[in-house]
Design goal:
Blueprint lengths: L1 H22 L4 H23 L10 H21 L5 H8 L2 H12 L6 H18 L8 H22 L6 H23 L12 H21 L5 H7 L2 H13 L6 H25 L5
């Protein structure tokens, strides 16, 4: 659970630094392409140095394929949705995925339906909506479809990752990014925003934090989803927009209103309760 929360925090940091990099002229698709490329290069080097196994059990290959495809589509759909929607609306629609995970968990896994978790997911979603403060003007159906598609893809991604219990970590990272990279390359080609690595000199610190936030966030996400249920993980990732907003307030000087502070408090309260319940559920029974 702590790894999932740390991953959410890394992704939240990633959002703020990407905004700073974008203002300097480094567009989103460019950053996405390079961060995936760097992750793939690092994993390939680690595999070569430590001779780590990249074998995937036959029974888990469909889940790994689904994980790679959904990982690519989530970022692509979410990134594309903001071309038609305000970022705040896209974020709120996207963060319906923890609720979707909780609703689907009894049907996809052997876990029983937990009403308390559904209530927590709905409360966290309300908190996220309060934090982000969506602007409901200028809604475009295309953007709504893309953001909802990203939400569904994220839910599928969590279930697929949790099904890779026998696949080594190196194999999960390597094969998934081999699937993600071509998708990001196509998006970058369509947007026409390719720049050489020297362009990162425009905002070196912001670019480094953006790429580093993704590397840490994705690594911890893959590890966490092998150790906790998709429902518990989905709730943990509601911390991502809260971290992003709070970091933006400190780093960028953005002012938060009372409603946003109340939303932050609601999400944090849900996360504390969720972590406590998960810890109790895993505690060994006395002999």
């Amino acid at each position: 659970m702590l790894m999932a929360l740390a991953s959410a925090g890394a992704y939240g940091t990633n959002i703020v630094s990407a905004q700073i990099a974008g203002q300097a002229g480094l567009n989103g698709p460019l950053l996405v392409f390079y961060r995936v490329f760097i992750m793939l290069a690092l994993v390939a080097a680690a595999v070569a140095i430590w001779r780590a196994s990249i074998a995937v059990p036959r029974g888990e290959r469909p889940a790994l394929l689904l994980f790679g495809i959904t990982s690519a589509l989530v970022g692509s759909a979410y990134l594309s949705s903001v071309a038609f929607l305000p970022v705040t609306v896209a974020a709120v629609v996207f963060f319906t995925y923890p609720v979707l995970i909780v609703l689907a968990e009894p049907f996809v896994t052997a876990a029983p339906f937990r009403p308390a978790r559904l209530v927590a997911a709905c409360a966290a979603f309300i908190g996220v909506a309060m934090v982000v403060g969506p602007d409901l003007h200028g809604l475009d159906p295309r953007g709504l479809v893309l953001a909802m598609g990203a939400s569904i893809g994220a839910a599928a991604q969590f279930f697929a990752a949790s099904a890779l219990s026998q696949t080594p970590l190196a194999a999960r990272l390597l094969w998934s990014h081999l699937l993600i990279l071509p998708v990001t390359a196509v998006i970058l080609a369509i947007t026409g925003g390719f720049l050489p690595p020297a362009a990162f000199a425009l905002a070196p610190i912001a670019a480094a934090v953006t790429i580093g936030g993704y590397l840490v966030g994705f690594l911890l996400q893959v590890i966490a989803l092998n150790r906790i249920s998709p429902g518990a993980a989905g709730l943990a990732y509601c911390a991502e927009p809260v971290c992003a907003v709070l970091i933006a307030a400190v780093v960028l000087g953005e002012r938060l209103g009372p409603l946003q502070y109340a939303g932050c408090a609601l999400v944090v309260a849900v996360l504390v309760i969720n972590v406590t319940l998960e810890h109790k559920g895993r505690a060994p029974s006395p002999a």
